[in-house]
Amino acid sequence: RRAALAAGRHLPSETTDGHRMVLRANVATADDARAALTVHAEGVGLLRTELPFLDAAAWPTREAHVATVTPVLRALEGRPAVVRTLDFADDKLPPFLAAASPSGHLGRGLPLMLAAPEAFADQFRGLLTAARATGAELRIMIPMVASPEELAACRALLDLAAAEVGVEAPPLGVMVELREAVDAVDELARDAAFLSIGSNDLTCQLLGVDRRDPAATPALAAHPSVLTAIGEVAAAGRRHGRPVSVCGDAAAHPLLVPLLVGLGVDVLSAAPAALDAVRARVRGLRYTDCVALAAEARELDSVERVWRLVEERV
Ligand code: PEP
Ligand code: MG
């Protein structure tokens, strides 16, 4: 079955009625980036930059950012790279931040970064420097955005860093993974170059489930409340001409792929090991059916009913 899936790698990721989905890869290392090219990903949809620094004793320097991101960008050979800024949070806390918070509760990553603007600027400087050296098509993505004001604060830091490095600021996008971001999605879509739905956090947020709870599975994103939120994000993206992606694990789940296609998501970003199966799933769908399926699923009253509906239909 794996071999059969791999044989379809070179085929377009489009539905039987010709609706194309862009497939990108979630990566953390240069090896992951090479694996992404092997499975014909159209670049990287999520580079998780915090992962090399989970044992850090202090904020990473500009040089440390250059050193970690350069091999990943180089491995992509000019394909687009959506690089997410540091997303330290309660479940991903390096010792120096854990020490600063004896309760072990730091909360969300972005306020933490905005409270350390020099450290944040160092990451922007490092990313821009690495992109210039490798010729990468860099796009920068901010996690845990709650408001247009936060995005504006990030943009101000990025613009300063770009002027210092002597380059144009790259496209700046936001992750939609907080309820506040869904509520402000029209303004965020107006101000950002692209939107990417972090379905892992968004699902937990909307359903009141702890991220570390074993019940927090990718399939839970099929809950009607989550589907409604994803549909609102996709609609805002369309209104403002911004591409909308899903980079949480829902993008690789067979029950979610038809729903995400039908809700109007443009890009699915998943682990390289999952992409052959995602492409095969997309190629087995009819877009018009997915649109009808998603509309119906949003009106149901439980996630179990949505699962059953998808199983019956596709
Ligand atoms: C998400 O929340 O869905 C996401 C992609 O980010 P992470 O899993 O790194 O929190
Ligand atoms: Mg997240």
SSE map:
Blueprint: H1 2-7, E1 22-27, H2 30-38, E2 44-48, H3 62-75, E3 80-84, H4 95-100, H5 109-114, H6 117-134, E4 137-142, H7 148-165, E5 172-176, H8 179-183, H9 185-191, E6 195-197, H10 199-207, H11 224-240, E7 244-246, H12 256-263, E8 267-270, H13 272-283, H14 287-298, H15 303-313
Parallel strand pairs: 1-2, 1-8, 2-3, 3-4, 4-5, 5-6, 6-7, 7-8
Helix pairs in contact: 2-3, 3-6, 6-7, 9-11, 12-14
The chain binds phosphoenolpyruvate (PEP) and magnesium ion (MG).
Q: Write out the strand line-up for the largest beta sheet, numbering strands in chain order.
A: 1-2-3-4-5-6-7-8
Q: What order do the helices and strands follow?
A: HEHEHEHHHEHEHHEHHEHEHHH
Q: What small ligands are held by the chains?
A: phosphoenolpyruvate, magnesium ion
Radius of gyration: 19 Å
Structural class: alpha/beta
Helix proportion: 40-55%
Domain PEP-utilising enzyme C-terminal: 5-285
Protein name: Phosphoenolpyruvate-protein phosphotransferase
Cofactor: Mg(2+)
Keywords: Kinase, Magnesium, Metal-binding, Pyruvate, Transferase
